[in-house]
Structure formats: C-alpha cells, structure tokens
Amino acid sequence: xxxILVVDDLVKYFPLxxxxxxxxxxxxxxxxxxxxxxxxxxxxxxxxxxVGESGSGKTTLGRAVLMLDPPTSGRITFDGRVITExxxxxxxxxxxxxxxxxxxxxxxxxxxxxxxDIIAEPLRAFEYDKESLNENLLRVLxxxxxxxxxxxxxxxxxxxxxxxxxxxxxxxxxxPKFIVLDEPTSALDSSIQAQILNLLRMLQEKMKLSxxxxxxxxxxxxxxxxxxxVMYSGKLVEVGRTRDILEHPLHPYTRALxxxxxxxxxxxxxxxVPLSGEVPSAMNPxxxxxxxxxxxxxxxxxxxxxxxxxxVAQGHHSACHFAETLLESESPGAASPSGTSRSTDWxxx
Amino acid sequence: xxxxxxxLLDVRNLTVKYRTSVREIRALDGVNLQVAKGEIVAVVGxxxxxxxxxxxxxxxxxxxxxxxxxxxxxxxxxRDLLQVREGEFAALxxxxxxxxxxxxxxxxxxxxxxxxxxxxxxxxxxGKRASRPKGPFQKTNSADTHEMSRGASxxxxxxxxxxxxxxxxxxxxxxxxxxxxxxxxxxxxxxYPHELSGGMVQRVMIAQALVERPSLLIADEPTSALDVTTQAQxxxxxxxxxxxxxxxxxxxxxxxxxxxxxxxxxxVMYAGDVVELAAVGxxxxxxxxxxxxxxxxxxxxxxxxxxxxEAIPGDVPDLRRQIPGCKFSSRCRxxxxxxxxxxxxxxxxxxxxxxxxxxxxxx
Lengths: 349, 363
Known about the structure:
The complex is a heterodimer.
Chain A: E1 3-16, H1 20-24, E2 30-43, E3 47-51, H2 58-65, E4 73-78, E5 81-82, H3 88-95, E6 98-101, H4 105-108, H5 115-124, H6 133-143, H7 160-172, E7 178-182, H8 190-207, E8 210-215, H9 218-224, E9 227-232, E10 235-241, H10 242-247, H11 252-260, H12 300-304, E11 310-313, E12 316-318, H13 323-329
Parallel strand pairs in A: 3-8, 3-9, 6-7, 7-8
Antiparallel strand pairs in A: 1-2, 1-4, 4-5, 9-10, 10-12, 11-12
Helix pairs in contact in A: 5-7, 6-7, 7-8
Chain B: E1 7-19, E2 24-36, E3 40-44, H1 51-59, E4 67-76, E5 79-80, H2 86-92, E6 97-100, H3 104-107, H4 114-125, H5 147-155, H6 162-165, H7 171-179, H8 185-189, H9 198-212, E7 216-220, H10 228-245, E8 248-253, H11 256-262, E9 265-270, E10 273-279, H12 280-285, H13 290-297, H14 337-341, E11 347-350, E12 353-355
Parallel strand pairs in B: 3-8, 3-9, 6-7, 7-8
Antiparallel strand pairs in B: 1-2, 1-4, 4-5, 9-10, 10-12, 11-12
Helix pairs in contact in B: 4-9, 7-9, 9-10
C-alpha cells in the first residue's frame, strides 16, 4: 500500500450554544455540520485537489485531517498510523511529517519575527541539531528561490508572492511527507500565482511530497491536481481523476460548477446554465441529496434518499442517484478553461 | 489617435498621485481611455496598478488628500468632471454615474432595510433627495417611530400582527429585485443586509444601479468576493443591465477570464499605465503588449501532465520610485536598451488595437 493518508467517514460538527433568548423560546442547541461523513485517500506523491465554494467545508476538512480541529468522529490513517487514536506526545511526533500552508501570508507570518525565526519555528518544537540549523535554513530558502540575505529581514520587506514563499519554506523545514495547501495562491496576483504554482509542483517532484490542495478555483486545480474531490455542503459529491472530472463530470453540481468557470477565450461560449439558489444552511441541511433544491434534474427520490458516493466508472466516484444516466448522456463537452490560439509573431519587430 | 465624438466618457492624460509628507506614489501616469455609449470596457490589472484609482477619479470619490490630480481631463456628457465642484457632483452621482463596489457586505448600510435603500435610490433619481455623500441619511418614512418597541418585542419573540410588520415599498422597488432574479422580492425588501448572502447583496446593489438608470456604471471587482456559480449569475445580470438601460459599464477586475466574459473592449493596466487597449477578441487572440501576453500565458488552463505554465518572473515595481523607461522592462523577456530609458506611448498598432511597446511601434 502506498497510501499516505486514508480518511474514513470523517465528521466534524461545530456545536452552537443556545443563547439566553433561544432558551427562553425553548430552542435547543444546534450543530453546524461542517464536514459530514467524508471518505477519501491520498497516494504517495499525489496531489488531491479539494474544490468547493465558500462554506462547503473544505477548510474544515483540511484542518481536521491534520488534527488541528479534532474530528467529531471518523478515522484518519496517516503513514500507516491511525492518528485519530493518538494523543499527546505520540500525536505531536507524527505532526512532524504533516504541514500546512495558509491562504494569506500577511496573517500567517508574525510581522515582528525575522524570517529565520519564522522558518526555524517548527524545528524548535522538536529536538534539532543546532549545528546544522543555518545550513538547513539555507537549504529551504534556496528551495523556494529566496535570496540568502532574506534571513534577517522582516515579513513587511517582502512582496506578497515572496511572503508566500516564506510560508512554504516554513512548511518544508521539517521534511514533511504531506502538506495541506489551503488556497495558497488565492491572495496573490495572477502573474505571481503562476510562479507559486510552478514552485509547488517543482517541490513536489523534488521532495516526493503529497498535497491536499484546497481551492475554489477550477483552473488552478486542473493545473495542480492528479485527482479531484468536489465538496458540497459538507459532503464529497464526486471524486476521480482530474481529467475525468473536468471533461466528464458525473454529478450535476460538478457540471454546474465547471460550466460557471469563465473560459479565457471570449470566442468560446460558456454554455452552462448558471445555478440558481444558494448553498444550503450547514445547520439544517436539506433532506435527501443536499443538492436537490438547486438541481436541474431533481426527481422524487432525491428529496427522500441521500445518495452514497459510489464508483460509477473506473476510479470515478459520484454521489448522484442518476450518475449512470449522466454517464450515458455524456456531458456537453463541459467548458473547461481552454487554450487560445495566437498568431502574433513575437520575435520580429 | 482616432477619438470619436460619440464617446460618453473621455479620460485624457490623467495623472493621479498619492502624496504624503514622506512619499509620493504615482498611481495613474497619464491614462487615456474612451468609453462609448452602451459599451462595456473592462479595466484589467493586478493589485496596485491603479485600476480602482481610475474608477474613483471618474466618480469623484478620490480620497483627497492624500490623492492629488496632477494633470488630465475627464470629459463626461460634455463637461470636465475634474472641474465640477463637489456640491454639483453629488447631483451627478447616482443619477448619471453609479458605482458598485467589491465588498458587497460593506457597501449597503447595515441599519436600513433593503427596501429603504432601494427606495432611496429611486428618490435620488427623481430628484427628491440628494445622494448620500451630501449629508446624513434622512428618514422619510414616518412609520419608523415604532421601530424601537417593535424591535424589542421581536427579540422577546412576541407575535406582531403581520399587517403591522409589513411595510409598504413601491412596486418599482420590488420589480427591481425581481429583475435581478431574487426569488421573493417582497420579503427581501423587508430584510436587513446581514440577513442576505453575499451574492444576494451584490444583486441588491445591481438592483439599485438598475433603478438609478445611470448612463455610466463603474463596477469595481463586483464579483471577486463571490463564488463562481454566483459570479456567473451576476455577470449575466450586468450584461442584462447594459442591454436594458443602455448604460456604459467600466468593469474593473483582476481576473482576465471574467473580463473576457463580460467586456466589449479591455484596457490592460500595469503600474499606473494603460499598456494595451483592444477589442476583447483581439486582446486574447493577438495580444500586442508583452505584459498582456504574460498575463494570458500565466493563466492555468492545461492539465498537470501537459507541461508548465509560463509565469512572468519578478514582482511589480515599487511605485514610490521614479521608474525610467517602460515600467514592465525589468520583467519583460523581449527587453532591449531603448525600453530602459524611454517610455513607450500607447499607439495604435492595428485598427482598433493600441499598445505601449517599442516592439510594436510602426516603422
């Protein structure tokens, strides 16, 4: 088995305390169903893209996988050890091999700490070799293409893209096997985004990393992920190889999501019908399939029975009662961001 | 240059600086831009390229100080907006020029119901009330006197007769919400902004613009805070707005793909300059400026196994310093000596397509 991470039926509820007025009115405490029974696995050296809209629970899932927010129930196996059963020191030691990079480097870096202290901080949480500290710092600094004199500077002396490089260097210093990347380029400009995406891919090849890449951006996931998991209202609705998901989506939500992504070429008409309605409340999700109030193909069974995530085609899982019908009908060449042809000759003046 | 006389808006050589006691930042450096009647022009660029400053200059909401207009003219409907005094400008805002902001949640007033805010827009249009920046919002609804006691009883869960709870808003207000595809407009009029989702609030903002019937709408990143499925809805609505009331739209965005969906023409900005101005199809198929090319190339559209993205190296230049020559020269892969000393003008390189690059200079 070369699975680095296996997540089985993971559930994370956030209890809401009933306020004074609520209690007067006889209301009971409710739960926010942020992640509601999620199962997936991640191979060694693989990138799994986790896509979903705001409020779908993707960040909560990422944090729960690292045990940053202990899950309500479910089982997480990391590198052969069931970490949901670990506590204290044992859990702390497994954390060495799992790291996270957050969305906004402006808030994830201490503005008053020097870069060398920021990057060395994970090391200090464990026993480390003080002799080779500097060598270690320079190693990760070169890995993320920052100049050596960065070590004594403060975060505000860097641009947004460089700050994200610092955050990545901090995640690399412990030689992790697995990194959760939570929207790592969403706060960056598009020309810088490409630099960071390329850097992350290069690091993955070099250091044999596995990524859980959380993003709302379908174009980014297409470029980064080997496989994609689509999340909606706390559940995975579709999991499969990136190409399969983007070219032949087998869940109505995935179809809508992909067709909402504007293609870069204005000549390509985005033929998708935009979704109506809103993401359901996580406090009181709809009965049956959670997508049923917005689904264009909704049938009676969808309001009654919750569909399971099941394998519809080889390596392609969908949680739709009618996934087979979608498979046969074949998607109308779902508009994935397509290339542009260009005839400008860039060498001649 | 071929200026048409039908241009609704004509920005000429606009230079805006942000000046403080210690530094000066040149946010706009001689920008030229024309917008025809009923046209959607997207202004595309990365953060700090001056695109929002351009929008704020046109609607007269630049924070002054620190902003200083160094030179330039903004012609709109026959007059130079830079010469219009604030008192008169207030009469233009909301009637001739409107603006939609990026953060939907902070652009509606949290203490007034949606209906009040749409009604306000209607009254501004009809000249019954000046638009907000002139003075504090004045209530016109006498029913508000019971607000306090009703609010208190609602918290305690007491039942208020439905007839008393309902306020009356004009049909036009409800109609406007219906047109932006809000499913129960009458109920929504009763609500406060915090009771709505981000997408709904942005639709309310568009509904406001709709009832104002401006001839020019400036939309500053109106979809950047929204999810993609909501974004698609809002983009369709904005196009509909143009078709319905014939408004010209300046659509400010950092997202090339969004620009390609909505715009007729695109102005690409870099570090305070418009570096390329072209019809949307020409820009994406035959970009003439290396920065436009770089932006298009750095947009991920291939699968992981289909090779690497072509990223633009380096970072945006520091605008606190005077940059000699072309501002993109430090990141440009086609750079040559002239680029570092002389600043290229925005010139027509093909019919209807302008670029500011020596490589594209005719002759």
